[in-house]
Amino acid sequence: MASPTVAEPQPHAVLVPFPMQGHxxxxxRLATLLLARGFHVTFVLTEYNARRMERARGHRWDAAAIPxxxxxxxxxxxxxPPPDQRDETQDVLALCSSVRYTCLAPFRDLMAHLGRAxxxxxxxxxVSDSGMGFTVDEDFxxxxxxxxxxxxxxxxxxxxxxxxxxxxxxxxxxxSWLSNGYLDTPIDWIPGLENLRLRDFPSFVRTTDPADVxxxxxxxxxxxxxxxxxxxxxxxxxALEDPVLAAIRSxxxxxxxxxxxxxSSVSSSLWKEDAECLRWLDAQPSxxxxxxxxxxxxxxxxxxxxxFACGLERSGHRFLWAVxxxxxxxxxxxxxxxxxxxxxxxxxxxxxxxxxRRVLAHPATAAFLSHCGWNSTLESVVEGRPMICWxxxxxxxxxxxxxxxxxRIGVExxxxxxxxxxxxxxxxxxxxxxxxxxxxxxxxxxxxxxGPDGSSTADLDRLVVDLKxxxxxxxxx
Length: 477
Ligand code: UDP
Prior knowledge:
The chain is α/β, with parallel strands linked by helices. The chain contains 17 helices and 15 strands. The strands form three sheets. The chain has a seven-stranded parallel sheet with strand order 3-2-1-4-5-8-9, sandwiched between helices. α10 packs parallel to α11 (333-344) and α10 crosses α15 (419-431). It is globular, with a radius of gyration of 22 Å. Uridine-5'-diphosphate is lined by residues 20-22, 25, 293, 295-297, 322, 353-357, 373-376, 379. Uridine-5'-diphosphate binds at residues 20-22, 25, 293, 295-297, 322, 353-357, 373-376, 379.
């Protein structure tokens, strides 16, 4: 006699992104995949970002809009900004330290509330940003997986911080070491990172202060937090970062490379998107436009903005430039951009914030001038667009190095930006057939990875099983 089938309880994952755009976006993409696999998802935003997202979307979070998807909020521990700064990117340093040391208590309350909430299946796993390490400070009775939203090469570089400190490479002896060639020191003994120099490591090594907050947070994360997690999830794919993934796996075997994650069913924008630029692109010839965007955090100086503007003008190529309202701190961007618009006429278009994936996918877009944030990098790879790399901070330097020397689809603007360097690199990226050919090849491999027999699909299947309630709790090392 066949035994009666017992319905599996619905798995419930609590997703905890770091409160910045480049983290919320991939987390929402992961949420979409988990919802499609039958999960109940609780998505944890900070109160500040939840309000921003509601303003950008033009309406409040509707609890019933997507079945099994709930947004919950916790405070980020920072003081409320004045009304005219409520849509500005928060200070990264202050935010990193504030969430690490103040969010545990409200998160504990939230977990208790979820345990009592009616019509809510019991929580079966936590998927936490590796930047939200408070989630492993306490045992919540379910496994905590870390979703590392940056590249595997970036993560592996961060994991070397304790060793770089122990060997005396960082902190730097004094500020002159920033410019005396010391940063060019090869760091060539780390498997998977053989081609790096000290300058290619995340920018937090460029400090002279042994008490530097970000240096120390990263050392602590590498030594304590990661080892407490049950597994590491990456938004990358095996073909792109295999040697690095293998090196990480040798230390932390439970690893999932599930990228590139596709668009989510919920808009994750913290800014209102400009749709006009897509119509402008519709009117441009195929593969003729350079797209310029420095992401959600980068802040430029007046002189940097002016050099970019001048270089774009001199290149003679068409461009679409997203100048975020807070890209420059003193609000002087409008004059520089206005002057540029007057000079180039319809050859260029400037917007505030756009739907980047749609811009990169547009047939008129040829290449991308970027700060090399990981989402931007991967989105460019997915659409087969070569890049001009102008890394700003953190592991963007590592991504830039891999783009230019390993994947060979990037051209770097190094050092202080000049109009000549911008002009030269725009011409190169728009005109070099080899760059385009290699970018098209990576596009094919990226799509293959998430196809039916792809490496990322297999890793996602494995992750979905491991996030379900039957999974035993397993520390990572
Ligand atoms: N983005 C966007 N529109 C913009 C600028 C950025 O949609 O005008 C999105 C972009 O698609 C990416 C994210 O914001 O998913 C930026 O993340 P990234 O890791 O590239 O950089 P960060 O903002 O963290 O420096």
